[in-house]
């Protein structure tokens, strides 16, 4: 989903499917829907960047985890909103995948709170690894579906490149897809370690997370 798409509900409908019957005021034609969607998306991306930046400074682990929790809730809010807006079994299943991934991000973020991480580090690590894998696959499927929005109904890379609407939408979905895989591989490297000493992989992990956060945010702003 894109902020541009939010401003063009007709384009949303052509790319993602017909609107699901919802109460008045929560339809993409309404300003309240657009504001909520845009704000939640922005909060998600920006707090991921801020949360990652905190990890470069000792003693800010708690603040980082809190920011990640807020960001994950922002992404989850977008997914829930879309799930109850659009219809179509395949489309809603695709959105449900993203929703599941965002929920795992919330759990994973909470798992990086110092008290939780000390108790059981697997909550944070595998919450992010699992969430990233689910979101990465879900976003790839969304990109594929956008590539099929042409007269032939089949996936066409040329359509993604030459059609402005499809290109923008695919760019957003791929931004989130790449961001998710950055967190997948970064968290996997974090789990493998070592995180201390001359062979520490922590700098690589943090910069991989920075890249992932930027891809998430870039996708939200297209």
Automatic annotation (TrEMBL):
<protein>
    <recommendedName>
        <fullName>YrhK domain-containing protein</fullName>
    </recommendedName>
</protein>
<dbReference type="Pfam" id="PF14145">
    <property type="entry name" value="YrhK"/>
</dbReference>
<keyword id="KW-0812">Transmembrane</keyword>
<feature type="transmembrane region" description="Helical">
    <location>
        <begin position="35"/>
        <end position="60"/>
    </location>
</feature>
<dbReference type="InterPro" id="IPR025424">
    <property type="entry name" value="YrhK_domain"/>
</dbReference>
<feature type="transmembrane region" description="Helical">
    <location>
        <begin position="201"/>
        <end position="221"/>
    </location>
</feature>
<keyword id="KW-0472">Membrane</keyword>
<feature type="domain" description="YrhK">
    <location>
        <begin position="31"/>
        <end position="78"/>
    </location>
</feature>
<feature type="transmembrane region" description="Helical">
    <location>
        <begin position="169"/>
        <end position="189"/>
    </location>
</feature>
<feature type="transmembrane region" description="Helical">
    <location>
        <begin position="103"/>
        <end position="129"/>
    </location>
</feature>
<keyword id="KW-1133">Transmembrane helix</keyword>
<feature type="transmembrane region" description="Helical">
    <location>
        <begin position="66"/>
        <end position="91"/>
    </location>
</feature>
């Amino acid at each position: 989903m894109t902020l541009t798409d939010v401003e063009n509900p007709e384009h949303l409908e052509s790319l993602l499917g017909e609107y699901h019957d919802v109460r008045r005021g929560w339809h993409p034609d309404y300003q309240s829907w657009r504001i909520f969607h845009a704000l939640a998306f922005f909060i998600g991306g920006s707090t991921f960047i801020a949360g990652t930046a905190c990890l470069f400074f000792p003693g800010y682990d708690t603040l980082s985890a809190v920011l990640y929790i807020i960001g994950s809730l922002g992404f989850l809010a977008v997914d829930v909103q879309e799930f109850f807006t659009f219809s179509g079994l395949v489309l809603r299943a695709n959105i449900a995948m993203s929703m599941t991934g965002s929920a795992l991000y919330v759990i994973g973020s909470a798992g990086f709170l110092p008290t939780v991480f000390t108790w059981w580090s697997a909550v944070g690590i595998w919450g992010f690894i699992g969430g990233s894998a689910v979101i990465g696959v879900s976003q790839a499927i969304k990109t594929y579906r956008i590539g099929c929005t042409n007269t032939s109904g089949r996936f066409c890379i040329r359509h993604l490149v030459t059609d402005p609407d499809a290109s923008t939408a695919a760019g957003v979905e791929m931004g989130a897809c790449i961001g998710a895989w950055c967190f997948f591989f970064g968290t996997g490297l974090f789990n493998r370690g070592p995180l201390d000493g001359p062979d520490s992989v922590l700098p690589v992990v943090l910069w991989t997370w920075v890249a992932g956060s930027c891809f998430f945010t870039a996708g939200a702003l297209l």
